């Protein structure tokens, strides 16, 4: 039997393409549940999410985030998950439907962590800003010793993992990681999950702007990386 998936969609100021995105996600047979967690938008994201739930009442759940940050939205959305696997699908719709289906096709055993790789996939013009690309490559290389010398796009939002992984998150890492990408990868590495990186097509935004604060986020990632080196690299010499 195929592994079924709960898809969590953190959404803040993403009203422009949310309906089309959710329509795409409902076409994937392996996804039996979609949870939209709306995070205090200034546009009509919440109202559109409620309309979507009315269209797909048996498949879509919506909730308003009570905390702050994307990772908090993922965690709150995951509390409603019915399936053993969770997929994060960013509401900006910058990873194509076809590419996300490629990730889902990899889920065939329980000890797997799958994530998208925009660095090796095709990119639309202006999809990945120059400074963002530099930062992504920098952290991919910095984390390669931790990930057994595999260069992966750590910050791609598309990730699939066993729901049980959420009970094994490092509180020390989680409290400084508002996006959750490194927290999840840290937990996957610590749990000895096989980490697979799949090239994905990266699309330019068709609505809104990124919610990421580049320099603040970079400082967070450096702090998390230092903690990860201490855990996985320095401790191995003791």
What's this entry about, in short?
By secondary structure, the chain is an alpha/beta fold.
Question: Any overview of this molecule?
Answer:
This protein has helices at residues 18-26, 45-55, 70-78, 97-104, 130-142, 171-174, 181-190, 214-232, and strands at 5-11, 31-38, 60-64, 85-88, 112-117, 159-162, 194-199. 35% of the residues lie in helices and 17% in strands. The protein has one domain: Spore Coat Polysaccharide Biosynthesis Protein SpsA, Chain A (Alpha-Beta Complex). The termini are far apart. The chain is of the alpha/beta class. Strand 2 (31-38), helix 2 (45-55) and strand 3 (60-64) form a beta-alpha-beta unit. Helix 5 runs parallel beside helix 8 and helix 7 packs parallel to helix 8. A seven-stranded mixed β-sheet has the order 3-2-1-4-6-5-7, sandwiched between helices. The longest helix has 19 residues, at 214-232. The mean pLDDT is 91.
Describe the SSE topology:
Blueprint: E1 5-11, H1 18-26, E2 31-38, H2 45-55, E3 60-64, H3 70-78, E4 85-88, H4 97-104, E5 112-117, H5 130-142, E6 159-162, H6 171-174, H7 181-190, E7 194-199, H8 214-232
Parallel strand pairs: 1-2, 1-4, 2-3, 5-7
Antiparallel strand pairs: 4-6, 5-6
Structural class: alpha/beta
Q: For the record, what CATH class applies?
A: Alpha Beta
Give the spatial strand order of the biggest sheet.
3-2-1-4-6-5-7
Please state roughly what percent of the residues sit in beta strands, choosing from under 5%, 5-15%, 15-25%, 25-35%, 35-45% or over 45%: 15-25%
Shape: globular
**Low-pLDDT runs:** none
User: What would you say the CATH architecture is?
Assistant: Alpha-Beta Complex
Number of helices: 8
Give the CA-CA distance, first to last residue.
Answer: 43 Å
